[in-house]
Design goal:
The protein is α/β, with parallel strands linked by helices. It has one domain: Aldolase class I (TIM Barrel). Helices cover 46% and strands 16% of the residues. The chain is built from eleven helices and ten strands. The radius of gyration is 17 Å and the shape is globular. It starts with a helix and ends in a 12-residue tail after the last helix.
Length: 254
Amino acid sequence: MTADLKAAARTALACLDLTSLNDADSAEDIAALCRRAQTVHGPVAAVCVWPRFVAQARAALPAAIKVAAVANFPDGSIDLAAALADVAEIAQAGGNEVDVVLPWHALLAGHSNDVGDFLSEIRFASRPLTLKVIIESGELQTPERIAQATRLALAAGADFVKTSTGKTRVGATPAAAAVMLKEIAASGLSSAGFKASGGVRSVADAAGYIAQTEAALGASALNPQRLRFGASGLLTDIESVLSGAESAAVTAAY
C-alpha cells in the first residue's frame, strides 16, 4: 500500500460528509451514524441527515463535527416555499450546513433566471449557515449545462457546488468534476469549494477527485473548507486503508 493512498485516505476522512438519507432512517440509525463519525483515525467533517434528525445529531456530536441537512431533496423542484421551510427547520434545530438541490428540471426547461432567483432566496434565508448547492450533474448531462448550473450556484453565493444527490442513475464523475472545478477556479472566489457525491465508494475514487481539486484550485484547497465528499460507504474503505488493510472497495470512476 502506497503512502499516497494513505494520504488520500486522511484527506478524504477530514473532508467527509458521512451521510444517511434513506427514506426509512430512524433515530437509532442516526445515533449509529453519529457514533460512526468519530473514528479512531479522527473525526469526519460533517454528518448529513434529513432535517428532522438535525437536533438529535447536533446533540450527539462534538462541535468540531458539523451537522448538515438537505433541502428540496432529492427532487429539486422549484417550490421555493417548501425549500425555505426545510432551511428554516435546519437552522432552528441547530444545523450548520444546508445541502439544497438546484431546480435542474427548470434549468433544462430554459428557466435559468427562475433558478438563479430560487438559489438567491435560499442563500439569503440560510445565512450564516454553509450552503452547498447540488446541481445533479448526471441529469444535466452536457458540459455546457453543468457549467451553467455551477455558475448559477456560485453567483447566488454557494459555499460549495456539489455533484449529485446520489439518488439518480449517474452520480459524481471525473468529467463533471472537471467542468465544475474549472468554473469554480474561473469565478475567482477563493472560498468556494467542490463536493463530490454519488457513487464515491473507495479511497482510490476519492484520490482522483483530490488530485483534480488540487490541479484546479491548488493544494491549499485540500481541506474541509473547500473540499467535501458525500458518502455513506466511503468511510469503511478509508478505515481499511488507514489501518493498513487492503482497500476493500472496487473503484468506480477512477
